[in-house]
Amino acid sequence: MNDLLQLGPLATTPLELISFLLAVTTVVLNIRQKHWAWLFSIASSATYAVVFYEARLYGDMGLQFVFIAASLWGWYQWLHGAANAPLVVTRLDRKGWRWSLAGWLLGFLLLSSFLDRFTDTDVPHADGFLTAGSLVGQLLLGRKKVENWHVWIVVDILYVGLYVYKGLMLTAFLYGVFVLLAWTGLRAWGNIARRDA
User: What angle do CA 102, 123, 127 make, to 5 degrees?
Assistant: First the structure.
């Protein structure tokens, strides 16, 4: 699965291409609030773990295993999360915003320190910051909070640069697509939250 494929100007591997397609399907299904998105998320995370290992992005690789566990939790939440009834889209209150930002900062400090000391990555701080932000985004998505899309917009924009730097051009393109999809998700979920308020 490591043979290079040329897709127009982008060089990729078959495994990166499969991961790309699974990830796009996941986000499209998330925007539409289809619980099957979580199954595609699990498959995408498993394949991307291998892609990121080969690129020495160990924070991102480890994050994929967390995403698999979070996807199982998110799937359950979407089906049974509010008093054994499916969750509805809501917004964070101020306390939720503070906890989310504090969690992102703490995660960044812990992850970047770990990656810097115990791995051979050349981007421990970027990897740690984006991994921590992705964890926050995934938790907010699992609870159907509109603000998950804010987190994903920030994280995805920054990931484009990181993946270009690491030579993962198809994945960089994917995260550019994710920015557009996250913007679409923000608008769609924002409208739902306003309508249900």
Answer: 35
Q: To which residue do tokens 């101020």 refer?
A: 94
Scanning 34-168, the segments in alpha helix (DSSP H) are 37-54, 58-80, 94-118, 124-142, 148-165
State both tokens at 193. 């939250």
Instruction: For the chain, give the number of residues.
Output: 197
SS3 92: coil
pTM: 0.85
d(CA 190, CA 9): 36
Whole-number Å distance between alpha carbons of 67 and 62 = 9
- How far is the C-alpha of 91 from the C-alpha of 184, rounded, in Å? 16
DSSP letter assigned to residue 84: T
Summarised one tens digit per residue, pLDDT across range 137-176 is: 999 999 999 999 999 999 999 999 999 998 888 889 889 9
pLDDT tens for residues 66-123?
A: 989 999 999 988 888 767 777 889 999 999 999 999 999 999 999 999 999 998 989 9
Rounded to 10°, the helix 148-165/124-142 angle is 150
